[in-house]
Amino acid sequence: MDYHISFAGLLVGFLIGLTGMGGGSLLAPILIILFRIPPVWAVASDITYSTVTKAFGSIVYIQHKQVNFSIVFWLACGSIPATLISVLLVQYTHKQYASLINSIIVHLIGFVLVFVAVLLLFKPTLMLWIEHRQQAKIRQKTGAQGSEHRRIWKRPMATILVGAVVGLMVGLTSVGSGTLIVAAIAFLYPRMPSRELIGTDIFQAFLLLLAGFVGYFASGEINWTIVCLLLLGSLPGVLIGSISSKYIPNKYLNPVLAVILGLSGLKLI
């Protein structure tokens, strides 16, 4: 079983390095479906594993000054409290109704996976629409001062709300910390450069997952053996995937990954 878990980590790490998103969403269903690991353990282990991988990614983007800390702050205002609340909710329900929360988590993971799969399929169309929206905003003349004030005020509120929704979902399922946020940031801030968009997404995902890790660590739900075995396989997997990404275009990989995620989600539902 040990080397099988490390091989799963290698596969997930390879997909993360290859596509930059979506690969991590496979980890929880792999642990649940293939290794029959209890859903609460699977979610806690996935969040811990993802926290480590996002930390390394965050360091790289911060060094290259490709993180928008203002947007990260507003996202964190919603995502961190929501993640902690969802983890506490899981722990309370797990103590009172263990079988019920496991069933709920499995179904939630399934629904989120299907949603992430749809996002991946329509990502090219979505990004093209966002690019057109960005060009339209650049051509648009600056409005009155009062109108500009309202526009600035609404954006942080919407960002906090997005962070809260994603934080709640990630705390319950461990899925979507990157894929869901990157689409929301691109929609809310269409003028943001693509590299800064990715860097902001990775760093906020690290903070969100760190909050989930703290919650599950305090409850003692993390299986460190599983986490170490996953990291043992995933670290070289990320390196191999990053090198391979130069030769394999994402336009061919994202549909395949979306189908895998969708089928995994339907199986869990």
TrEMBL record:
Segments passing through the bilayer: 7-35, 71-92, 104-122, 160-189, 201-218, 224-243
Record's keyword terms, sorted: Cell membrane, Membrane, Transmembrane, Transmembrane helix
Membrane topology reported for the UniProt record: Multi-pass membrane protein
Gene Ontology cellular component annotations, sorted alphabetically: plasma membrane
A Pfam family hit: TauE
Localization per record: Cell membrane; Membrane
Chief location of this protein within or outside the cell: membrane
InterPro entries: TM_pro_TauE-like, TSUP/Inactive_protease-like
Family from the record: Belongs to the 4-toluene sulfonate uptake permease (TSUP) (TC 2.A.102) family.
PANTHER family on file: MEMBRANE TRANSPORTER PROTEIN MJ0441-RELATED, MEMBRANE TRANSPORTER PROTEIN YJNA-RELATED
Protein name per UniProt: Probable membrane transporter protein
Protein's organism: Dictyobacter kobayashii
